[in-house]
Amino acid sequence: MQIVEVKDVELGKDFLAVNAIMNAENPCYIRALDNEVNEVFDPAKNKNFKWGQAKRWVAYTDNGDLVGRIAAFTNDKYLNKGTDFKTGGVGFFDSINDQATANLLFDTAKEWLSSMGMEAMDGPINFGDRDKWWGLMVEGFNKEPMYGMSFNPAYYEALFEGYGFKNYYNQYYYYMNVDDPLPEKFPERYAKFNAKPDYSAKHVKLSELNKYAGDFATVYNAAWAQHGEAKEITKEQVMKLFNKMKPIMDERVVWFAYYKEEPIAMFINIPDLNQYFKHFNGQFGLFQKLQLLWMKWRGTNKRLTGLAFGVVPKYQALGVDSYLIYAAGLHLQGKGWYEQYEMGWAGDWNPKMVNIYKSLGGTQSRRMVTFRYIFNEKYPFERHPEMDYK
Fold it and tell me: What is the 3-state secondary structure (H, E, C) of 301-321?
C-alpha cells in the first residue's frame, strides 16, 4: 500500500473519486460538487489559507486500486477554548473497512500536523466554516444528506475509535414537516409581540440584500461571535455570501425580527441544494446550471434546510425566537411550496439550541460526531465545554 500526497490534477481527481467509491452501496448518497471540494484546497478560493495550511493524500493498493483519502489542516482561527495545546484538523476521510488502512491515513495526517506544531487533531472537520463537511455521520444513513452534510459508511465510526479518537461532541439534526402545527406557546408569544408596535418580523426582499447583509452581521456578531469557535463577520462578507446564494435564494424563507427597526433575531433558511445536485454527479457546468434553474422554476424542490438562527443576547429568553418562527410559519404553512424542513446541526454543547429544535416539535433525524485525538498523553481529554450564555 502507498500513500501519495495530492500535487497534480490527476491525483486530485482520484481524491474526489474515493468518496463516491466508498459510498456506492448506499442509494441515499449524493456526491458533493467537485468544484466545491477543490475550492477548499485552492488558496485563491479559500480565505483560510491566510491563517493556515492544508494537505491531502490518497491511498492506493500495490495494484493501484483506490482505498482511501484524508486531508489535514492547520488554522490559527480555529479556537481551542480552555485547552493548553494547539489543535489541527483532519477531514475528507474515506477508507475501506480495514483498520490498518485507516491507521496509515491517520498516521500520515498526524505526522504532518505534528511537524506544523500541532498537538491534537479534531475530525472530521473542514478547512473552513462549520456549515460544510463537519462531523462524522453515525446515525441517519437512511436519508439523503442535506447540502454540505458529511455522508459516510457506518463502519467509519469504528475506524476512528479504533485509532484512538474520542467523542469531542455530538451534532444533532432535527426535522419536521413544514405544515406540522407549532406548539401552543408559539402563537401565544407571537400574539404578545405582534400587539407591540415596536416589534416586527419580515422576510427579506432580494432587491434589498445589501440592507439585510448588515442586519445578518449585526445579529450574528451579537449572538454567536463571542462564543466558541465562531468569529466576527463583516457586512461585506455576508453580502458576498448572499450574492453567491441569490440564484437559489427564496426570499419567502429568510426572516428577521426587529425592535424599533434594529435587527434582534434572524431565521435564515434555503432550499436544500442537494435536491438539485443529486442529479449532477458532482458536475456543475452550464448544462447543470440551466437544469437547476428549470427545476427551481418548476418548484420541484420540496425540502427546506436551516442555514442560521440567532437572537441578540439582550432579547433572548423573552420569546422572540417563537415570535419570529411563528411569523414565518404563518407565511409558509399550507401553501405547498415546501414539505420537509431539516434544521442545521446543534452541538450537544449548545443545549439552548437543541431545546429550540425540540420545542418546535422536531424529531431527531441524524447524529454526527466531531472526534478529538490528542498526541501527547500529558494532556487529558475533555469534551467540548458547554456554551456560556452570559
Answer: CCEEEEEEEEECHHHCCCCHH
Tell which residue, 224, 219, 167, has the closest CA to residue 352.
224
Cβ proximity of 37 and 92 under 8 Å: yes
**Torsion of the alpha carbons at 149, 155, 158 and 163, rounded to the nearest 10:** -80
Distance from C-alpha of 347 to C-alpha of 345, rounded to nearest angstrom: 7
- Cα–Cα distances (Å) from 235 to 2, 248, 270, in that order, read 46, 20, 19
* CB distance 362 to 176 below 8 Å: yes
Q: What is the pLDDT of residue 48?
A: 94
Write the DSSP symbol of residue 80.
-
Query: Which domains can be identified in the chain, with CATH numbers?
Result: 2-171 (3.40.630.30), 179-338 (3.40.630.30)
301, pLDDT greater than 70: yes
213 touches 242 (CB < 8 A): yes
CB 233 within 8 Å of CB 308: no
Using CA atoms of 94, 383, 342, 69 in order, give the dihedral in degrees to the nearest 10.
Answer: -10
pLDDT 10s digits, 160-190: 999 999 999 999 999 999 999 998 999 999 9
- Whether the per-residue pLDDT at 229 is higher than 70: the answer is no
Mean pLDDT value of segment 189-217: 95
Tell if the pTM clears 0.85, that is, is over it: yes
CA distance 174 to 121: 28
Please state the three-class secondary structure of 164-211 as a single string.
CCEEEEEEEEEEEECCCCCCCHHHHHHHHHHCCCCEEEEECCHHHHHH
| Residue burial 109-125, b: 16+ Cβ < 10 Å; e: rest | bbebbeeeebbbbbbbb
Helix H or strand E segment including 86:
none
